[in-house]
Amino acid sequence: MWRSGLKFVTALLLLPATVALTRALLDLLRELSGGTWRGWSWSAWGLLIGFVLWILAYAIMPRPFRTYVLAHELTHALWGWAMGAKIKGMKVSRSGGYVRLTKSNFLITLAPYFFPFYTVLVILLHAIASWFIDLQPYEPVWMGWIGMTWGFHLTFTLSMLHARQPDIREEGRFFSYTIIYIFNLLGVGCWIILVSARPWTVWSRHLGHELVRHYGAVIDTIAGWL
Asked: Where along the chain do its domains lie?
C-alpha cells in the first residue's frame, strides 16, 4: 500500500515537469522553424513525411498487431536484461504475449510505452552502415524510416493505453501515464535536436528555463498558502 502512495506522490511532484517539458518542446519547435516551413531541412521533411505515411497506413490498412507485440515483449526483455534480470521465457502471438523475467521494476514494466524499439533499431542500423558507406546523401530516407517507426510506436502506444493493460494497472495509472508522457517528450526533444543538427544546449536551455519557471511557481504558491 505504501508503494502505491509513494508512486502517487512521485507522479504529483512530476506534474510541473510534464508542463515544463511540453512548453520547452513547443519553444524548441518555434525557434527551429522560425514560424515557417522554409527553415526545415530535407532530413526534417523526411521525418515528417515518414510519420504522415505511417499515420495513413495505420488508418486504412490492417494493423500489424503481432509486429507490435514482438517489439513490446522484446523491449521488456531488453530493459530487464540491461538491469540484471534473466529471461526465463517469452511468447508472441496475434492475441498478445508475455516475457518472464527474474526481476522487474517500473522502468522494465513501462519501457514498451516510451522506448520506440523499431526506431532505435533503425538508428543502430544507420550507425553500423555509416562505418562502411557514406550515408549523407540518403539522410532524408533514413529520417523517413525514423518517422515511420516512431509513428508506429506512437499509434500503438496510444491504442494500448486506451485498453486495460496489466503493465499500467501494476504501476498505477497516474504514475504510469506521467512517466510515459515525460519519457516520450524527452525522446521527441532528442529526435528534433538530431534532425536539426543543433547543439544539445539549445534543448537543455529551453528545458532548464521551463523547469525553473514552473517549479518556482509551485514553490511560490505553496509559500503563499503557508
From this structure: 43-205
